[in-house]
Design goal:
By secondary structure, the chain is α/β, with parallel strands linked by helices. The chain has one domain: Purple Acid Phosphatase, chain A, domain 2 (4-Layer Sandwich). About 30% of the residues lie in helices and about 25% in strands. It contains 7 helices and 14 strands. The strands form 3 sheets. A 6-stranded mixed sheet has the order 1-14-2-3-4-5. The longest helix has 25 residues, at about 1-25. The N and C termini lie far apart (about 65 Å). About 40% of the residues are buried.
Length: about 290
C-alpha cells in the first residue's frame, strides 16, 4: 500500500510539474532595460529596440500573435536577434520564417546574428539552411554573419559569428580569435554608438576590448532554473551557476544585455524563468 501511495504522489507531482512547464513556457513577459548614452555635440539618442533571442521556433499564440503584439506595444525602431531563432534539429522552420515575414510586413528592420544552432544547421544540414535563407530573404533583414550594418539613426551594428568550438560543453571551449572581427568592427568606426550582436556572453572582456558600446547576447536561457538571490543555476552546456546568466552587466564603458530567451530545445525546462522579450530604451546621461 505504501508503494501505491508513493506512486500516486509521484504521478501527481509529475502532472503538476508538466502543467507548470506548459504554463511557464507560454508566460511571455516583456521587460525594459534602460541604457545610458553619453552624448557628444550633435549626437542624437539611438531609438528604442527589442531583443528577440533564442526563439528556437517557438510560437506564442496562433501565428505568434502574442509575441507580435508584445513587439508592437514596444514600438521599436529595430529588432535585434543575437542568434538561435531556429533549432538545428527541426526539419521545418515555419515559426521563425513566419515571424520574420510578419516583422517585414510591419516594416521593422531586423538585425540578425548567427547562433550555434544556425551555424550547426549551415554546416550539417546545408539544404535545410539554404531553404531557410531563401524563405527569409528581404531587404529589411540584415543577416550579420561577421558583417556590419548602420541603422537609419546612425547606430552601427556588428554581428560576430563565433566558431563552433566556443560553445563547448562543461567548460571545454576554445577562445575566439578577435582578429577575425576587428576589421568588421572598424567598418563602424564613424558611428557614435555601436552595438555588438554575439550569441554567447562568455567572452565579455574580449567584447569590451573591441570598443562596442553595447553587447547583446543570449544563449544561456537564463540559466534554465532561476532561484531568488542566486540567479541562473545551470547553462545549456551543463555548467553550474553561469556568470552571465541573464540581465545587465558592465565592464569599463561597455554594457552587455543578456536575454533569458524565448524558447528551449534539448532540455525543455524553465523554472522561475519566464520567456523574455527585452525592450532597450536609450536615455541621456544625467536623465536616468
Amino acid at each position: 500500500m505504501d508503494v501505491l501511495y508513493l506512486l500516486l504522489i509521484l504521478c501527481i507531482l509529475a502532472i503538476l510539474f508538466a502543467g507548470y512547464q506548459i504554463f511557464v513556457h507560454r508566460a511571455l513577459v516583456t521587460e525594459e532595460v534602460r541604457i545610458t548614452v553619453r552624448s557628444s555635440d550633435g549626437q542624437s539618442l539611438p531609438c528604442d529596440m527589442v531583443v528577440l533571442s533564442d526563439l528556437h521556433n517557438r510560437q506564442f499564440g496562433k501565428n505568434n500573435e502574442r509575441l507580435l503584439r508584445a513587439i508592437d506595444d514596444c514600438r521599436p525602431s529595430a529588432v535585434l536577434i543575437p542568434g538561435d531563432l531556429v533549432t538545428k534539429t527541426d526539419r521545418r522552420n515555419a515559426a521563425a520564417e513566419q515571424l520574420l515575414m510578419q516583422l517585414y510586413a510591419r516594416e521593422i528592420p531586423v538585425y540578425y546574428a548567427l547562433g550555434n544552432h544556425e551555424q550547426s544547421m549551415r554546416s550539417k544540414h546545408s539544404e535545410q539552411w539554404a531553404s531557410f535563407l531563401s524563405e527569409i530573404d528581404d531587404e529589411r533583414l540584415h543577416l550579420l554573419d561577421n558583417a556590419s550594418a548602420v541603422t537609419k539613426d546612425g547606430v552601427g551594428i556588428i554581428g560576430w559569428t563565433l566558431p563552433d568550438g566556443c560553445y563547448g560543453r562543461r567548460g571545454r571551449r576554445i577562445t575566439p580569435d578577435e582578429s577575425s572581427i576587428r576589421k568588421v568592427v572598424a567598418e563602424t568606426a564613424d558611428q557614435a554608438y555601436r552595438i555588438l550582436l554575439v550569441h554567447t556572453p562568455y567572452y565579455f572582456s574580449m567584447y569590451q576590448s573591441l570598443g562596442a558600446d553595447l553587447v547583446v547576447s543570449g544563449h544561456l536561457h537564463g540559466g534554465i532554473v532561476r532561484l531568488p538571490l542566486i540567479g541562473g543555476v545551470i547553462s545549456p552546456q551543463m555548467e553550474l551557476f553561469p556568470k552571465y546568466d541573464a540581465g545587465v552587466f558592465c565592464e569599463g564603458d561597455t554594457t552587455m544585455v543578456v536575454s533569458r530567451g524565448l524558447g528551449s530545445h534539448t532540455m525543455p525546462i524553465r523554472i522561475g524563468n519566464r520567456p523574455q522579450l527585452i525592450t532597450i530604451r536609450f536615455v541621456q546621461e544625467g536623465q536616468e
